[in-house]
Amino acid sequence: MTARFLDAAARTAFAQAITAIEGTSAVEVVIAVRRRSAGYRHANVVVGGLAAMAGLAVMLFGEHVFALTSILIDPFVLGGIAGAIVELLPGVKRRLSPAAMRHRAIMRAARATFVERGVHNTRDRSGMLIYLSWLEREAVIVADSGLGHKLSSEAHAQAERALTAAMAGGGAAVARELERLAPALAGAMPRRADDINELPDAIDSDLDRQDRGLRP
After folding, report:
1. Which segments of 62-98 does DSSP mark as H helices, in order?
2. Nearest Cα to Cα of residue 114 among 28, 178, 20
3. Sign of dihedral through CA atoms 12, 17, 22, 27?
4. Which of 151, 150, 120, 152 is closest to 28 using CA atoms?
5. Helices vs strands, H then E, count in the chain
6. Neighbour-count burial of 116, counting CB atoms closer than 10 A to its CB (0-12 exposed, 13-18 middle, 19+ buried)
7. This prediction's pTM
8. Domain-by-domain residue ranges, the chain?
9. What's the Cα-to-Cα distance from 177 to each of 82, 158, 162, 167, 173, rounded to whole Å?
10. In whole angstroms, how far apart are CA 211 and each of 5, 6, 15, 166, 206?
11. Residue 84, Cα to own-chain centre: how many angstroms?
12. Splitting the chain (216 residues) into consecutive groups of 10 residues, what average pLDDT does each group show?
């Protein structure tokens, strides 16, 4: 369930990771966790359409004789119900959405969150957004220009791969991987003597809403 991804242990681990990074570097970490980054409504349409076609085939070729009104209406009702049920099955949406489509949606959402959360409002442009999308099981790092110029593209990509690989293990696993980035970030942007905490450390999450029984 989504609530388990960001449980008390995960929140504690993220707090430790933020402290480790901001205590040794000038980097300001902001963590955003989202249930999903797009609606992926095509998955509802695909499943609903297949269910409707299957229902129609049964009614047309089955031994039982159905009324014409049932043949006209019932497949659409079945398809609508099946399509609605997909909202409770994030794994189905994930599997019916190509990786490239999911990544584009995550990147758009992450960049929008970067601006909305004001991660760019730091003295040295040292903000770093860690964006975690639960349905897609993918992590994205959006670094501000000051940090981006000092952190190699390979180090950036490697960090994203490590965080993404940890997603299946829950929030605490992701937090542990995040904490391992502290030495590299300290090397890229050492902490200044007059460094202050410029951005809120609280996790920005929409998983705090009532869990709807979604499962990965």
Report:
1. 68-85, 90-95
2. 28
3. negative
4. 120
5. 10, 4
6. exposed
7. 0.88
8. 2-37+98-205, 41-95
9. 38, 11, 7, 10, 6
10. 11, 12, 23, 22, 10
11. 21
12. 84 96 96 96 97 95 91 95 95 95 97 95 94 96 94 94 96 96 95 90 80 41
Give me the pLDDT at residue 213, please: 39
Type of residue numbered 144: D
**Other Cβ atoms within 10 Å of 39 Cβ, number:** 11
Both structure tokens of 169: 């293990």
Rounded CA separation 105/30 (Å): 20
Token pair for 103: 């990544």
For residues 61, 64, 67, 70, the Cα torsion angle rounded to the nearest 10 degrees is -70
pLDDT at 4: 85
Joined tokens for residue 65: 């004789």
- Tracing tokens 């955003």 back to the chain, one arrives at 32
Q: What is the pLDDT of residue 208?
A: 66
Q: What is the separation, in whole angstroms, between the first and last Cα of the chain?
A: 7
Written as one letter, the residue type at 166 is: A
Which architecture characterizes domain 2-37+98-205 according to CATH? Roll (3.10)
